[in-house]
Amino acid sequence: MIITSRFFNRSELIGFVALAVVLFVILPLLLDVFRLNLVAKYLTYAFVAIGLVLCWGYGGILSLGQGVFFGLGGYCMAMFLKLEASSVENTKIQSTPGIPDFMDWNQITSLPLFWQPFHSLTFTILAIILVPGLFALIIGTAMFKRRVGGTYFAIITQAVAAILTILIVGQQGYTGGINGMTDLRTLKGWDIRPDNAKIILYFVEVVLLFACIGIAQFIRLTKLGRILVAMREQEDRVRFSGYSVANFKIFAFCMAAVFAAIGGAMFALNVGFMSPSFVGIVPSIEMVIYTAVGGRMSIFGAVWGSLLVNFAKTSLSESFPQLWLFGLGGLFIAVVLAFPNGLSGIWQDYVQPRIDRLLAMRKSKPKNGWRDNSVADGAPAE
Amino acid sequence: MLIGHQPKEFLLAVEALTVSFDGFKAVNDLSFYVEENEIRVIIGPNGAGKTTVLDLICGKTRATSGSIQFRGKELTKLKENEIVQAGVGRKFQTPSVFEDLTVFENLEISYPRGRTVFGSLTFQRDAAVKARVEEVAEMIFLKDRLDTFADQLSHGQKQWLEIGMLLIQDPDLLMLDEPVAGMSVSERAKTAELLNRIIKDRSVLVIEHDMKFVEDIAHKVTVLHQGQILSEGTMEKVKNDPKVIEVYLGH
Amino acid sequence: MFGDYSIGDLGSIFVMQGFAGLILFSVYVLMALGLAIIFGQMGVINMAHGEFMILGAYVTWLTSNFFQSFLPSLFSGYFFLAMILAFLASGALGMLVEWALIRHLYKRPLDTLLATWGLSLILQQTYRSVFGPREVGVELPQWMLGSLKVTDSIEVPINGVFVMGLTLLITTAVAYVLYKSRWGRQVRAVVQNRIMAGAVGINTEKVDRYTFGLGCGIAGVAGSAFTMIGSTGPTSGQLYIVDTFLVVVFGGAASLLGTIASAFSISQTQSTLEFFMSGSMAKVLTLLAVVGILMLRPQGLFALKVRK
Asked: Closest approach of chain C CAs to the CA of B91, in angstroms?
């Protein structure tokens, strides 16, 4: 208990317990399997949003290409599942049995070399972490070592998202094209489609999510977390305190990439397919808005933001498709202009003080973490 | 590796240093030498290239040509953080502290340990760190404000905090860019006292306009004009140099 | 790869492909000009730039319909009026947006990016609600149809030539306004030092608003020109926004000449590659090359070395 209370301060502890109760108990009890599976899908974006809290909220590095890493993680997972679903037995009606159906449709007659290692689950799990991690390392090293940041970095990452999408859509023989990889069935023989599998996958995902929350919180509390904040404000002062600013940015960007990739892999498992529509510019920038709505400085806020925006999206776009884009657009503007600290800011400014007053046992002032001006003034200069 | 002190070895040797911005030579063929434990003040009219010289030494600006040797190391080839690790500390003209962090955290970040990514992940706030932070906080008159966020400090207190952040790095060469500018009279006096205390056992390079202050602390004065040295020597010598009187002190 | 063509054929193909590239170049320049003013001069990332362009396209479409229904005799000249209307409509919307949104965010460039993205979503949906989800194409006047026969095997479309001429004209005008006029000096003064510019009596707020309006207005003209070579839908703007930003960044954000040079190299690379491979691969390779070069040379093609 002593460790916990040091790891989370009081209001964070409340946030942690509330989230755990909702995700582990309330939602599984309340929702049917179909809706629980929807929640699982929403939560895959929460992984991305947590990464963005570290990288954007703390480090001031806005990546508009997180869909790239989400997609790379998702495609790695989907490739493994697709290969398992494409056994010779399952695909004997194809002209070349034993390869994924979309390859057969595109007159490809043997499994491409880069697909081969995805027969192994161990390799796949490593690839889910390492492929996006290394890719982020390359982009981050190229950009941050040359002091490219701010808006330039945002535009470059966006271009990368555009490139990868066009590539995936264009190379349909190798990637499944615009339809993506569909009809994923089993994981090491275990069918991922029935209801009980979906429930198990949901819990696996939530456990992973809490692991990522723990890692992010740990990073936030170390000196590295404070250096990220320091860097966002006074990059030169950090540099002239003896730190290699680029290395810290690369680290934050790589962590965000790996978190996003884990989310992507869970997406492939929970939703049962992966497609380029989760890779490109539009999904990437939507992932940023989940973070902004939750509060770019709040790890728990990122999870709530992902859940609420997606819930709103599903319900609004089903019944009033026109309203949804107006709503989403308005959300972007409102969050930036009026609530730069998102839901967690509203909570801190309006709800928390009232709760404190109600409890009113001791006079307590928020001591750590959260202050208004931190975001408003925190936009990094180029 | 040389063991023992070489006689006549300079701490800092700047030679034939030149930097040009689109043809404009902000610093032009500049050479000067700073000895161990020397306090050198650079003065000169606006635009003389004083701040640029500090920028060049600490790596913020890259030299077009020339060399900067610090304890035998060529600084022009090092990155900023490597220059800091070699023992050069720099204070900027406007106070640059981390406003979203507390005074304690500001000082802690400057504590010279755990400066790599991995090092900062495993950094522990142990007794040695706490003791050193408190010691420095005492020197910079902020001991009772350790838990205050830096944005709540006054202008003068921010300047002190930044000086404290340099102090905790324990650099061999301390570079200060107008440390008393914008301070109230009482803050100014306190700062002079603070500087007099911290410049012991190290070399200091100061840019300052306040002549009274310069006279108090300088061992040697270098007068810059249009990127070149106009005069150099003791305050007494420089003050009486007709060239200096004409371009700088005269009016 | 060249085996099936004679030298003469190949020559003609390169010329015509080069011409296709020139049309693409003109469109890029027109789109990038507005962005170069807003991003290069003001440092504002306007993700809704494509939507301002589309507004110009819709205005042109409306004007063309109006002339067709009410003034068929003047139809051959509608285009000139349409471009002026497009400029005014996009420019006015731009000034409104600057006043309502952008001016609150000058110190937060990343937030501007998010807010203008939100704006682009709203505009897209507005277009969809007003003009319908389908793409619309304008009727071109007779004289713009057909093509000029340069030699036996080389033909160039007249509307393409027109767009190129238009681009030349607008670029010259923008260069004049920015670099030679008093107003252009004020814009650059504000960019370099806002506080000082204000202190010497320049109304910085007004300069900001008109600069943003001008950039958006030029986007509107670009959209208007765009209707001559393609159709317009609610989301057409978004297709081009990334390319356009890359053009501006690749050129070196503050340099008009750089923008033109970069638009030229990107469009020529893409249209030449398109002949040898699928359009999507040509685009991937072009964008990859641009991003690769930007990683090696982040300041872009043309950049000044200045003291920060």
From this structure: 17
- Say if residues C18 and C271 touch (Cβ distance below 8 Å): yes
Q: What is the DSSP string of A107-144?
A: T--S--GGGGGGG-HHHHHHHHHHHHHHHHHHHHHHHH
- Maximum CA extent, chain A: 75
Does the pLDDT of residue C271 top 70, yes or no?
Answer: yes
The token pair at C296 is 């090696």
CB atoms within 10 A of CB B69: 17
- Of A382, A143, A153, A156, nearest to C108 by C-alpha is A382
CB atoms within 10 A of CB C4: 7
Query: Would the CA dihedral through A68, C286, C301, C210 be positive or negative?
Result: negative
For the CA atoms of chain B, what is the radius of gyration?
19
Paired strand residues for B221: B41, B233
Neighbours of chain B (3+ CB pairs under 8 A): A, C
> What are the pLDDT digits (tens) for C84-103?
999 999 999 999 999 999 98
Q: Where are the alpha helices (DSSP H) in chain A?
A: 2-7, 10-21, 27-30, 33-52, 66-85, 101-105, 121-144, 150-170, 172-175, 195-221, 223-233, 235-239, 245-271, 281-294, 299-319, 321-337, 342-346, 352-359, 373-376
Query: Whose CA is closest to B84, among B65, B52, B111, B66?
Result: B111
Tell me if A233 and B115 make a contact (CB, 8 A cut-off): no
Q: Please indicate whether, in this complex, the C-beta atoms of C45 and A155 are within 8 angstroms of each other.
A: yes
Q: Where are the domains of chain A?
A: 2-361
What does pTM read for this prediction?
0.89
Residue C192 near chain A (CB below 8 Å): no
Q: Which of C250, C254, C220, C249 is nearest to C237 (CA)?
A: C220
Please give the Cα distance from C79 to C205 (Å, whole number). 33
pLDDT by residue (tens digit) across A262-313?
A: 999 999 999 999 999 999 898 999 999 999 999 999 999 999 999 999 998 8
CA-to-CA dists, residue C260 to A153, A300, C218, angstroms: 22, 46, 15
Q: Which residue of A has its CA nearest to B105?
A: A226
Are C33 and C262 in contact by the 8 Å Cβ rule? The answer is no
Cα B107 to chain centroid distance, Å, stands at: 17
Q: What contacts C108, CB < 8 A, 6 or more positions away?
A: A336, A376, A379
Spatial distance between the Cα atoms of A224 and B109, rounded to a whole number of angstroms? 9
Q: Which residues contact A331 (CB under 8 A, 6 or more apart)?
A: A289, A293, A309, C118
Concatenated DSSP letters of B71-104: TTEEGGGS-HHHHHHHTEEEE-SS----TTSBHH
- Contact between residue B74 and residue B66 where contact means Cβ atoms under 8 Å apart: no
CA distance C164 to chain B (A): 35
Indicate the range of A56-60, A348-352, A373-377, C117-121 predicted with least confidence: A373-377
C 209-248: CB under 8 A from A: 238, 242, 245-246
Contacts of A325 (CB under 8 A, 6+ apart): C121, C122, C124, C125, C128
pLDDT tens figures, C7-61: 777 777 777 777 777 877 888 888 888 888 888 778 788 899 999 999 999 999 9
CA distance A263 to chain B (A): 24
Cβ B189 vs Cβ B158: under 8 Å: no
